[in-house]
Design goal:
The complex is a heterodimer of chains A (386) and B (136).
Chain A (H helix, E strand, L loop, with lengths): L3 E8 L10 H15 L7 E5 L3 H4 L5 H8 L6 E5 L5 H14 L5 E9 L6 H7 L15 H16 L8 H10 L13 H5 L3 E3 L2 E2 L8 E10 L12 E10 L14 H14 L8 E3 L7 H9 L29 H4 L7 H14 L13 E7 L4 E9 L2
Parallel strand pairs in A: 2-3, 2-4, 9-10
Antiparallel strand pairs in A: 1-7, 1-8, 4-7, 5-6, 8-11, 10-11
Helix pairs in contact in A: 4-12
Chain B lengths: L2 H6 L1 H6 L1 E4 L6 E2 L4 E2 L6 E2 L1 E4 L3 E10 L12 E8 L4 E5 L13 E11 L7 E9 L7
The chains are: A alpha/beta (386), B mainly beta (136).
Chain lengths: 386, 136
């Protein structure tokens, strides 16, 4: 089968862009991705966005963005799957090309989290939960993660202080990422003194919601000219699996079953084993997600994922680097755009363009976004195109 | 105001009305018509017993606007004796420190004021500690 490749990426810095609108963010990212691709024009554009309808009174974001980035007469739609929206936009672009319906497709994610401020934003964030049976009882995504964290510590006798390792690692790596929202290392003492959001989860256990846009252009290799401006990255396979939406409907809330299933099927599709993965861009919306993901994916035994933060395995020079450009915690979490930042960062590693954060010989990337506490897990495996 | 949604959910909110699967016997809450355990149709109405155990709990300190005036409040995952788990606030704690494994029972309480000024109050289930009963 003809390879499906990523020809170009583009993204804005992640942060609070008070003076920049949703359309401007999207246009910036899209133009960069198209320029990197030598001016390739997509026949389809899929736009990931989570909160514009509740924060900006703007739905129909796919149609809006296609219009404002100057694409007309193309297929356009919004893709929404909670925190996995960005990855699912990539999936839609991939399927459009793989099916033969398009030669070139654009996956773009954009979020304007700062269009509202204050407690209204917390209410808006809760739209990803079960509205009638979780949010209506005062649960928030942070409170939901706090419940997992408390139970995890209780069941496995994990050390509370050990969770500091994940935000500390994220911030350390973000120093080398010019597009990251927070580019300063943090100390463990800072973590210990952080404000409590929802016991036992503190401010540094939660990735910051932010503004940003990231775009990834996907094409069928056979339509490309022999010389392309950037090294091509091949999409080797996807694995996507859902679980119950509400955390309370899980058979075992500490088992991120969708992560396991999606990693297994992505590896099968990509003909790749866990040992062959060089780094893992995982979805650290909350620090508790990190050990749960590592365990479900098969990198740590059940109940021991938290120890991986203690032994150096997750560092850039470790056996399984994660959050190589800061992750959600330090690069930031711009909602619908996040999954495409994760993909773009993996692409930079595979191209050898990760600068100070370069993992030597990066040849296989595992990239995964989650909707909520793995209510959906969307995983892709990327490699340099031969 | 979203009065229709609150009215439609009233039996679940006030009385824990769920379903029982006629094929495998599992009790379901909330009702979902398709049994998640055996995959068969499950539409038999069943009112659940409101006792259970705290699986996990947390004190929410950064509340959404709808719940801001109650903050801080405790929300928990409660494993019902009937089988399903649900999300609910803990109430009537007084001086009692909640703990994982604590026995709790359902009560009907005010969840919040609705979004508008016309005074609609939304009620629903919360759980309070089961008090020790003196033996006669």
């Amino acid at each position: 089968m003809d390879d499906i490749v990523i020809t170009g990426i583009g993204f804005t810095p992640v942060g609070e862009h008070w003076e920049v609108s949703l359309r401007e963010l999207a246009t910036d990212a899209a133009l960069k991705a198209m320029q990197e691709s030598g001016g390739l024009r997509p026949q389809a554009v899929y736009v990931a966005n989570q909160y514009a309808p509740v924060l900006s009174r703007q739905a129909n974001v796919g149609v809006l963005v296609a219009d404002f980035i100057g694409l007309h007469d193309v297929e356009a739609a919004t893709v929404e799957a909670g925190g996995a929206s960005g990855m699912m936009a990539l999936r839609a672009a991939y399927l459009a090309v793989a099916s033969g319906e398009a030669d070139v497709a654009l996956a773009l994610g954009v979020e304007k989290s700062t269009d509202r401020v204050g407690p209204d934003v917390e209410t808006a964030l809760s739209v990803v939960l079960d509205a009638d049976y979780e949010a209506e009882h005062g649960l928030t995504p942070a409170a939901q993660a706090a419940l997992l964290m408390q139970r995890y510590i209780h069941e496995y006798n994990a050390e509370r202080a050990a969770f500091a390792a994940f935000p500390v690692l994220a911030h350390r790596n973000a120093v080398g990422n010019p597009a990251a929202m927070f580019r300063r290392a943090i100390k463990e003492s800072t973590y210990r003194r952080a404000t409590m959001l929802s016991d036992p989860l503190n401010l540094f256990d939660a990735a910051p919601l932010a503004d940003g846009a990231a775009a990834v252009l996907v094409a069928r290799r056979s339509v490309l000219p022999p010389e392309m401006p950037q090294p091509l990255v091949r999409i080797a396979g996807f694995g996507i699996a859902n679980d119950t939406l509400a955390l309370h409907d899980r058979d075992d809330p500490l088992d991120f079953a969708a992560v396991r299933s999606s990693v297994e099927s992505a590896c099968k599709r990509a003909n790749c084993s866990l040992e062959e993965v060089d780094f893992f861009e995982l979805y650290d919306a909350f620090s508790i997600y990190v050990p749960l993901i590592l365990e479900a994916a098969g990198f740590a035994p059940r109940g021991e994922g938290w120890k991986m933060g203690q032994d150096g395995s997750l560092e850039l020079d470790g056996k399984l680097p994660i959050l190589t450009m800061g992750g959600l915690k330090a690069r930031g979490n711009p909602g619908g755009a996040t999954g495409l930042y994760q993909v773009a960062e993996a692409v930079m590693q595979l191209r050898g363009q990760a600068g100070d954060n370069q993992i030597p010989n990066a040849r296989r990337a595992l990239v995964q976004s989650l909707s909520g506490p793995a209510s959906l897990a969307a995983t892709t495996i990327l490699e340099p195109a031969p | 105001m979203d009065i229709s949604r609150h009215w439609r959910n009233r039996k679940q909110r006030y009385r824990l009305v769920g379903e029982v699967c006629p094929h495998c016997g599992a009790k379901l809450f909330p009702p979902r018509d398709v049994c998640p355990h055996c995959g068969m149709e499950a539409k038999t109405v069943e009112t659940l017993v409101g006792t259970g155990t705290v699986y996990a709990f947390t004190t929410v300190r950064q509340a959404p606007s709808d719940f801001a005036e109650q903050s801080p409040y405790v929300v928990a995952l409660i494993s019902l004796d009937d089988g399903p788990m649900l999300t609910a606030q803990l109430t009537d704690l007084g001086d009692v420190e909640p703990y994982v494994g604590m026995r709790v029972e359902m009560v009907t309480r005010k969840l919040r004021n609705a979004d508008d000024e016309r005074g609609l109050i939304i009620y629903g289930y919360k759980f309070r500690p089961v008090l020790e009963r003196a033996l006669a």
